[in-house]
Amino acid sequence: MRGPFPTIAALLGILTAVWPAQGQVLPKHVQSVAFVSAVEPVADTTPYRANPVLAGLGAILGGALGFIAGGMSGAALVGEDCGGEWCGLEAAFTGALVGEVLGIGLGAHLGNGWRGSALPALAASGGVLGAALILGGLGGLTEGSAPFVPILQIAGAVIAETQVARARARR
Q1: Which of 14, 39, 40, 42 minimizes the C-alpha distance to 28?
Q2: C-alpha span between 65 and 67 (Å, rounded)
Q3: Overall pTM surpassing 0.70 (yes/no)
Q4: How many CB atoms lie under 10 A from the CB of residue 145?
């Protein structure tokens, strides 16, 4: 038995011979120029388009990871010094909420390719959570409306992130 190496080498040899070498072809805007200066690179003139879908996916993933990491951090801060079985639960929930706000804002910023600003996305996510906590304390937030809080947090963070990115692209 010779092993898979000769087969893989033969396939790579065939692909190298048949596949066009794209890496050695000059871009169309440079092909007409006889000399390209290394001092003056060609500027990318394509306008940036904010991508709310990727920003939303980043916010969802970041919020979930932030919720878990924040909850674990909050529970770890209390440690085993407290006396009851449920004594670290309040700290875990507080950490989870802080982690969710940070994760949604930073996830939207990362999903948008770091183009906007994380601060407005964090402010939008934290503002929605703050308003929900105030409404909950006043009795205005019911159990049926509580699942809409993270949805509104994600929507606010994505809108804030993409609007800042669009404003920066216009400059």
Answers
A1: 42
A2: 5
A3: no
A4: 13
